[in-house]
Amino acid sequence: EIVLTQSPGTLSSSPGERATLSCRASQSVTARSLAWYQQKPGQPPRLVIYGISSRATGIPDRFSGSGSGTDFTLTISRLEPEDFAVYYCQQYGYSPFSFGPGTKVNIK
Amino acid sequence: QVQLVESGGGVVQPGGSLRLSCVASGFTFSMFGMHWVRQSPGKGLEWVSFIQYGGSEIYYADSVKGRLTISRDDSKNTLYLRMNNLRREDTAVYYCATSVVAAATVVVPWGQGALVTVSS
């Protein structure tokens, strides 16, 4: 079973700042099967990044994903007010298709 | 309109049963694997189960194995989750979602979910 850890647990930032979120896997993620989701209060999760670095349709280019093996990063180049949310990573290469515990990005 | 709509949630006593449904529209449901994911109140996302297109592969989280059963009816564009012997810790919003690999073809937004409350 692949266990995902995310850091930091909470990131306090201001609009316009760069945000860097980390996701680490307990073993190598296969076939680039790493995704990131955004969730706002009272809403379902929304796919942001799949295949480590591919933006889902409709996701602005200030979001980017990178990494390989066991270490992955979601970067938001300039935070907009609508970006403040919880972000989850997920590996979908092997069952169980685990999620990380999430990083909350809040306004400083 | 590309969408998933869950239904069938409710309040059930411990040991009881429910069946959730997820109706898909706006895309070719039969072509994609489907997941159930749940979220307990105030908590993170927990993957529950997956069924491949055609039903050829099925997987479950250890926490639900033997109690929850995933299935699909491609003629009705519907995914199901049969939930038996429910426990208080199964209380959550249950979401259905397409396999992430579908995103290269079509991004299907998650539905609003179905709330299952297990309480006496």
Summarize the main sheet of chain A: 6 strands, mixed
Shape of chain B: globular
Q: How can the largest sheet of chain B be summarized? A: 6 strands, mixed
Helix content of chain B: under 10%
Number of helices of chain A: 0
What portion of residues of chain A is helical? under 10%
The tally of helices of chain B reads: 0
Characterization of this structure:
- The complex is a heterodimer of chains A (108) and B (120).
- Chain A is mostly beta strands and 108 residues long.
- In chain A, 0% of the residues lie in helices and 47% in strands.
- Chain A is built from no helices and ten strands.
- Chain A has strands at 4-7, 10-13, 19-25, 34-39, 46-50, 54-55, 63-68, 71-76, 86-91, 103-107.
- In chain A, the strands form two sheets. Chain A has a six-stranded mixed sheet, with no helix packed on it.
- In chain A, strand 7 (63-68) and strand 8 form a beta hairpin.
- Chain A is globular and about 35 Å long.
- The relative contact order of chain A is 0.34.
- The model of chain A has no long low-confidence stretch (mean pLDDT 97).
- By secondary structure, chain B is mostly beta strands.
- Chain B is 0% helix and 47% strand.
- Chain B contains no helices and ten strands.
- Chain B has a six-stranded mixed sheet with strand order 2-10-9-4-5-6, with no helix packed on it. In chain B, strands 1-3-8-7 form a four-stranded antiparallel sheet, with no helix packed on it.
- In chain B, a hairpin with a 5-residue loop joins strand 4 (34-39) and strand 5.
- The termini of chain B are far apart.
- The model of chain B has no long low-confidence stretch (mean pLDDT 96).
- The chains are: A mainly beta (108), B mainly beta (120).
- The A-B interface holds A 33, 35, 37, 39, 44-47, 50-51, 54, 56-58, 86, 88, 90, 92, 95-102 and B 35, 37, 44-47, 50, 59, 61-62, 95, 99-101, 103-104, 106-107, 109-113.
